[in-house]
Request: fold
Amino acid sequence: MASPRDYYEVLGIGRDASAKEMKKAYRALALKFHPDRNPDDKEAEASFKEAAEAYEVLNDPKKRELYDRFGHDGLKNSGYGGFQGGVEDIFSAFGDMFGDLFGFGGGGGQRRGGARRRAPRRGQDMRFDLSLDFEKAAFGTNEEILVQRAEICEPCSGKGGKAGTEPETCGTCGGRGEVIQQQAFLQIRTACPTCRGAGSSYAENCDECNGRGRIPVERKLAVNVPRGVDDGMQLRLSGEGEPGSMGAPPGDLYVFLHVRPHEIFERHGDDVVCALDLSFPQASLGTEIEVPTLDGSDTVKVKSGTQNGGLVRLKGKGIPNVRTGNRGDQVMQCKVATPKHLTDRQREILEEFATIDGEKVRKGESGTGSLRRFISRLTGSDD
Reply:
């Protein structure tokens, strides 16, 4: 028995060839020795299998390392005994590559000498965009949506033919379900445009769907939106997409959620954040103040000495976590307002406060006091 040729020699590449160079060399050999271009040529078929075996080994980093170190014996000792399958197994193993070369995939195509028929195909997935109010996203909701999709035509059961008629072998493709276009030395196979890959067609089309086998239908669907969803999340409605072909399962419907902004709250994870307006005395002395929450009004305690920008937290008043259900907090950032207009008494109190603290302030009269003295001078009164 003749020993197998060196794999690098088979592909015509150097031992330092990159994966890209290796693939390019194999593609060239696959084109040259492909069975469709060399019908009933045993030598070409053998060369085709030899190239596939070489590529299978050298394209696998572990096998390539063994081969580089120990040659064919190293592969045998590791349990690899060469490419044992036939030509059809090569198509299966390198289906993606042959799809690039010849316009079809290797996994579900025809066997040599047989007709290629369209295989059942899962239905297409669909998308629906759903807008939600902030509160509905936080606490969940049940929404009803209208979705338009193509469904199987009932009068013809999706076959496309008029009731009472039988399918006939497609005259365009001769029942193969595909047509072959010759481009230079390549043969490009595509689904037959007349029968759409079925291999048969009807002399008279269905009146309802005009031979398409499907009709557009608008459906109402219920969407259960769980608590705590956020903007950009998706919900999957299994089996609510386009129907599959030839009895294959339908696709899914993906509902993309868009949450409208809230006039008060912003979401940060599972917490909600808002502003808390406080007067200077409230921040200085502390207070209890009523604030809005997602659940309605609540009372929050503000400690004395609260600073501008300080945070006050209400536990468990945030967003429910979409997985655990545990609620986040409501976090309020304090905004302490400085009074713009002081009465005489307010100014006196603040000046006394500054004196006690040893702080220097600009002493003077309030706007109302200055106005009274100006009027007194005009009227000559002592008041």
Remarks:
- Residues 344-379 form one domain.
- Residues 53 and 82 are 6 Å apart (CA to CA).
- The first strand starts at residue 126 and ends at 132.
